[in-house]
Prior knowledge:
Layout: E1 4-8, H1 15-18, E2 24-29, E3 37-41, E4 50-53, E5 60-63, H2 85-93, H3 112-124, H4 135-144, H5 173-193, E6 200-203, H6 208-213, E7 228-231, H7 237-244, E8 251-253, E9 264-267, E10 273-275
Parallel strand pairs: 8-10
Antiparallel strand pairs: 1-2, 2-3, 4-5, 6-7, 7-9, 8-9
Amino acid sequence: MSAVQERVKWKLLTRRDLDLKLPYIHVLTCSDGGPPVIRRIGTLLAAVTLTLVSTVAGVTLTAGAAHADGCYTWGRTLSQGMSGEDVRQLQVRVAGYPGNGAVLGIDGAYGPATRAAVSRFQQAYGLSADGIAGPQTFNRIYALQDDDCTPVNFSYAEFNDCNSDWSGGAVSASTARFNARVSMWKLQAMRHALGDQQIVVTSAFRSRACNSAVGGSATSRHLYGDAVDLGAGPHSLCRLAQQARNHGFNEILGPGFPGHNDHTHVAHKASRTWSAPNCGI
């Protein structure tokens, strides 16, 4: 006999509603007694195990394994000692969990620092903190990212109001865009640590022309794509500067540093420069 298809349609909510986009899920129940199939369409909500109860043939379905994602899908469990592109992709997502004052290298090698960052990520989201990236960890990441690989609470458009192609900076357009994405994931971690409240971005990537127009430094990290200026919102500028110390930013400039009384600047560079005297930094 042919399969009987039941469609369970979940409401699509905007970020402003819940900061999560719920998926459309097709539940396929076979009347010949074969195993049911769950097929994901759109962005996967995989942070928690979904239990779907089908009214067809009285079958109860539970989906708990990691599934394909529109951005990047991990095909194996990752642990210390492993290496590869899948490790590098994981490092991007946990770049905001290096520990106080540290920066996680994105080199594709799963060393002790990556294991510790994964463990902190797991702790932050209530997972078993063993430092091993498996289905539960990947499902949580899938729920946090859009299909363009940016985290759900930040976007490329938000990080580039200078031009549409990321060109004209101190590095190639692709490198500037990648650097911006890493900073987004660091800020996503910081946002979660601050109670999942909005972080206001006022400036990020700049071409040389855009940087000159706003009076930026000739050596500004904005030219590299990794710098982000943050404005006051749910959190004060000092609170942002203080929290940023835990999320992989080697450059933090805020109130009390010349030209930074109206924003907090975070970025990545080889050496550390932290200065926000009015904030105790």
